[in-house]
Design a protein that fits this description.
Rossmann fold; five-stranded parallel beta sheet; 5% strand; mainly alpha
C-alpha cells in the first residue's frame, strides 16, 4: 500500500507557553506540568502479538492492578488481532521482504533519556534524504506494511496531540524510538518494565546487550535486522534511528553496521536526572498495568545512567572519529544549524547545504519552545555529583547550588 513516509513531512514547530511551571520530579502524572493521556488512547502493548504479550504477562504472573483490567482486556484482544495480521502481512509482502532494497547505513542518535535525542531526531527529519520509523511502525512492527495506511486514518482520533511528559507533538506519523518496535517484537528490552513497574527488577534489564546470553544477543540482533528490512521495503532512504538504550549498545551496533554513523548528544546531568525521574513516573502511569509509584525510582535512574555510560565509554574506543560525533544539548539549542553542520562534516554525511534552508526556517519557528524547569535538592545534587562525576568532568558541566 503506497504511503508517503513521515520523514518527508517537516515536523511542525514545537511551541509552548512563554513560561513553564517549575516542576519537581515527585509530582504525580496528571498534576500540573503533565499533559493528559486519555483512557481510550492505545498503549504500546496493544501492538504486541499474542505470544509476546502472553510471555510478558506470565513473566509477572499476571499481577495486574484491578483498575487496569479493562486495559488488559483490550490489549489481549488487540494481541490476538496482531497475531492474525502479522502472517497476512508477511504473505502479502514476502517477495519484497526477500528482495528488500539495500539502504545506506543507519545513522544512530545516542544519548540518555531527556538529553535532546528527540530534538535531534526531528531536526534530522527535515533532510529529505533520511527516513525514520514512525510511531505506528514501532507500535505495530509486525504488520505495518499491511495496515499502516488504513489504521492510522481510522485511529487518528485516539492519539493525543502531545506527549504526556513534555510539549513535544505526538501522533501516529511522528518519529519514534525503534526500541518500542523491538520490545513489541519480543526482543529483550528495558522498556518492558513500563508494563509492570511494580514487579520489574530494580536494576536495568537488557540495557547493555553484552550482559545477555549469546542466544539473547543473537535474538536481539536478528529482531533489529528484521525490523530494518521491513522499514526498507517501506522507504529505502538512509534510516535515522533514535533510541536512548542504544547508547549502551554502541559496540554491538558498530559491529552490526560497519559503515553506520553515531551522533551522541549530552545534557547537563543536573537537569537530566529530575527530568528522567519525571519521564518514568509519567510513562509508568500511562503505560503501566499496575497502579502506584514504583519503589525507589530515583535509584533506577542512577543505575541506568551508570550502566549506560560505562558501556558507552568501553565501546567508543572501537570507533574512528568519522563514525562518532558528540554535541552538547546546550550548544544544539543555542545554534542548531551550526551544530548540525559540524555533525554532517565530521560524520561524512550528505551535503549539508541541501538541508540548511529547511533547518534555518524550522529553527526560526522553534524559538517559542520552553523546557520544564527543576528545583535542585541538596541531597540529590550531592548524589549526582558523587555517582556521575566522570560524566560531569568529561563534558564540562558545573555543579549547581542547591535551592
Amino acid at each position: 500500500m503506497p504511503q508517503s513516509s513521515p520523514a518527508s513531512q517537516p515536523p511542525p514547530a514545537m511551541t509552548a507557553p512563554a513560561s513553564s511551571p517549575a516542576t519537581t520530579a515527585g509530582k504525580p502524572p496528571g498534576a500540573e506540568g503533565f499533559h493528559a493521556y486519555p483512557w481510550w488512547s492505545p498503549r504500546f502493548w496493544h501492538g504486541m502479538p499474542l505470544g509476546v504479550w502472553l510471555r510478558l504477562v506470565a513473566e509477572h504472573r499476571a499481577r495486574f492492578s484491578p483498575s487496569r483490567l479493562g486495559l488488559v482486556a483490550t490489549i489481549s484482544t488487540a494481541a490476538a488481532s496482531n497475531s492474525l495480521a502479522e502472517p497476512l502481512s508477511e504473505a502479502r509482502y514476502r517477495r519484497k521482504l526477500n528482495q528488500a532494497p539495500a539502504t545506506p547505513p543507519p545513522l544512530f542518535i545516542l544519548g540518555h533519556w531527556r538529553s535532546g535525542t528527540t530534538l535531534l531526531h526531528e531536526l534530522l527529519m527535515l533532510d529529505e534524504r533520511f527516513c525514520c520509523p514512525s510511531t505506528y511502525q514501532c507500535f505495530a512492527p509486525g504488520h505495518f506494511l499491511l495496515t499502516e495506511a488504513i489504521l492510522t486514518r481510522m485511529l487518528a482520533w485516539m492519539m493525543p496531540s502531545k506527549r504526556p511528559m513534555d510539549n513535544v507533538a505526538a501522533g501516529w506519523s511522528r518519529p519514534q524510538e525503534d526500541e518500542f518496535a523491538l520490545a513489541n517484537m519480543g526482543a529483550p528490552s528495558p522498556y518492558r518494565r513500563m508494563a509492570f513497574p511494580l514487579t520489574s527488577p530494580a536494576e536495568p534489564v537488557a540495557l547493555d546487550i553484552s550482559k545477555l546470553s549469546a542466544a539473547d544477543q543473537a535474538r536481539w540482533q536478528e529482531t533489529l535486522r528484521q525490523f530494518l528490512t521491513r522499514l526498507a521495503v517501506r522507504d529505502s532512504r538512509r534510516p535515522v534511528l533514535k533510541s536512548p538504550p542504544h547508547t549502551a549498545r554502541l559496540g554491538i551496533l558498530a559491529r552490526m553496521f560497519p559503515e553506520g554513523r553515531f551522533l551522541h548528544v549530552v545534557r547537563d546531568p543536573f537537569v537530566v536526572f529530575p527530568s528522567t525521574v519525571r519521564l518514568w513516573r509519567s510513562l509508568d502511569h500511562v503505560q503501566g498495568l499496575q497502579a502506584g509509584p514504583a519503589a525507589d525510582l530515583e535509584e533506577y535512574v542512577f543505575a541506568c545512567f551508570e550502566e549506560m555510560y560505562a558501556a558507552f565509554e568501553r565501546d567508543r574506543r572501537e570507533l574512528p572519529d568519522n563514525r562518532l560525533h558528540e554535541v552538547r544539548y546546550e550548544d544544539l539549542v543555542a545554534d542548531p544549524v551550526a551544530c548540525l553542520a559540524e555533525a554532517y562534516e565530521r560524520l561524512e554525511l550528505d551535503d549539508f547545504a541541501k538541508v540548511r534552508p529547511a533547518l534555518e526556517s524550522h529553527v526560526a519557528a522553534m524559538k517559542q519552545y520552553r523546557t520544564n524547569t527543576y528545583h535542585h535538592d541538596a541531597q540529590v545534587v550531592a548524589e549526582i555529583t558523587r555517582r556521575w562525576r566522570p560524566f560531569i568532568d568529561r563534558y564540562g558541566y558545573e555543579v549547581p547550588e542547591a535551592d
